[in-house]
Write a structure and sequence with these properties.
Elements (H helix, E strand, L loop, with lengths): L2 H22 L1 E7 L6 H8 L2 H4 L2 E7 L3 H9 L6 E3 L1 H9 L5 E4 L7 E5 L13 E4 L5 H12 L4 H4 L1 E4 L3 H10 L4 E5 H9 L4 E4 L11 E4 L1 H6 L1 H20 L1 H11 L8 H7 L5
Parallel strand pairs: 1-2, 6-7, 6-8
Antiparallel strand pairs: 3-10, 4-10, 5-8, 5-9
Helix pairs in contact: 2-11, 2-12, 4-5
């Protein structure tokens, strides 16, 4: 056997080995939103932590926690990031869904009103936007309005708009008078000095958001995949605490290059399980 033939055989074996390794990674579509509480997922993917645990995690943006819970319970997704409120609402209705891990007690959320609104009292009788009823944004909005003395259920009209982009567009266009926005979406309004009527980070509210969620059926059927995901997820949280520059870089990517002053507060709240 000549040297050239041996060389090609070795190369072919190496390529087939690498292909086999790549095929061994289990592909999982993981539901995320624009919330930076999903940071462990992006850090875990960027740092190769999921790959080291045999998983190919592909984050997919889903518009609202209620939609995420439906995707999980219907089997379209086996793991997803969902706010606690959406999970509780689904469980009350008998849904097979369970929280596995939550990265933070609360994320920065602000109640933003249109420029012509001078006080919270002026919101009464007007409309506000949510992604879906019983979603995390719905919970945030209700809590923020309660902070300023407005009952969202009795004194305002709530519009289900589908996603954060639709909410900000409706706020810009005057279709709604107020919205509860996470840091990524609120920055353009803050930069233009739109009224900030409430800051949930200054409350004693505890609301686990962007929690790793699955079904009991999947956890029972495939505990290996679940454990692999959680191992990588917890490693990502530890890396966030250890390597601030890496975390900041990925946060900047998530908000399209805008620096987030609240990063330290969010970073400090990360914990493996709640």
């Amino acid at each position: 056997m000549n040297i050239a033939r041996i060389f090609f055989i070795v190369v072919a074996l190496l390529l087939s080995h690498r292909t086999a390794q790549a095929q061994e990674l289990r592909r999982i579509l993981y539901g995320v939103s624009t919330s930076i509480s999903h940071l462990p997922v992006w850090v875990g993917k960027d740092a190769g932590l999921f790959a080291k645990n045999g998983l190919n995690i592909e984050p997919v943006q889903i518009r609202g926690g209620a939609v995420s819970t439906m995707a999980i319970m219907s089997g379209q997704s086996v793991l997803s990031g969902v706010g606690a409120g959406s999970v509780v609402a689904a469980r009350v209705e008998g849904g097979d869904i369970v929280l596995l891990a939550c990265p933070a007690d609360l994320e920065p959320v602000y109640l933003i009103a249109r420029p012509e609104i001078k006080s919270a009292a002026e919101l009464k009788g007007k409309a506000a936007g949510v992604t879906r009823l019983n979603s995390s944004i719905h919970f945030y909005l209700r809590s923020a309005l309660r902070m300023v003395g407005v009952d969202s259920d009795k004194e305002m009209t709530l519009l289900q708009l589908g996603g954060s982009a639709e909410i900000t567009t409706a706020l810009e266009g005057g279709r709604i008078a107020a919205a509860a926005l996470t840091i990524k979406d609120v920055l353009p309004f803050m930069q233009r000095n739109w009224p900030v009527l409430a800051d949930l980070t200054k409350s004693d509210l505890v609301y686990p958001s962007s929690c790793v969620t699955s079904t009991r059926a999947f956890v029972k059927a495939d505990p290996k995949t679940v454990n692999s995901f959680l191992n990588a997820y917890v490693s990502a949280i530890q890396l966030i605490k250890k390597d601030q520059k890496l975390a900041e870089r990925i946060v900047d990517q998530m908000v399209k290059g805008k620096r987030i002053g609240e990063f330290e507060q969010v970073r400090g709240s990360f914990c493996p399980f709640i």
